[in-house]
Design a protein that fits this description.
- The protein has one domain: Rossmann fold.
- The longest helix is centred in the middle third of the chain and has 15 residues.
- Strands 3-2-1-4-6-5 form a six-stranded mixed beta sheet.
- The chain has seven helices and six strands, in the order βααβααβαβαββα.
Length: 132
């Protein structure tokens, strides 16, 4: 069983103590469920921390050390154009395909609207917690 965290779930899991996303992250780590990401997802995460949360470069580096402790990065070779309403979200699908993930865990409405792509279930953390 392999999963991908969308950037918004990654933010919730790492910034908000007690959030459903953080509880899910802890559950997955305890169960040794591989969590994958990509350089593009990490770049987006960095950008949001800087822009929306005013994190310093040092604070971002500290948080990224924690993320790299549980996340395995892949470099997607497959490019898709699946999310028509928000093409930036295609990086999540690409990462999931490359890592052969079974689930994309997200709060993003554009991705959730798809429900499934290429055998990959797209679900919010609340549903994921019931599965894991």
């Amino acid at each position: 069983m392999v999963v991908i965290f969308d950037t918004n779930v990654l933010l919730s899991a790492t910034l908000w103590d007690g959030s459903v996303a953080q509880k899910l992250l802890y559950d997955l780590i305890k169960q040794n469920v591989p969590i994958y990401g990509s350089p593009e997802i990490i770049a987006e995460y960095r950008k949001v921390l800087k822009r929306d949360f005013d994190f310093s470069d040092e604070e971002i580096a500290e948080v990224l050390l924690q993320i790299h402790a549980f996340m395995t990065l892949v470099k997607p070779t497959i490019k898709v154009n699946v999310v028509k309403d928000d093409p930036d979200d295609n990086i999540i699908i690409e990462c999931a395909l490359e890592s052969k993930s079974r689930y994309i865990i997200t709060y993003d409405a554009h991705l959730l609207k798809l429900k499934e792509y290429g055998g990959i279930q797209i679900i919010p953390p609340e549903i994921a917690r019931a599965i894991f």
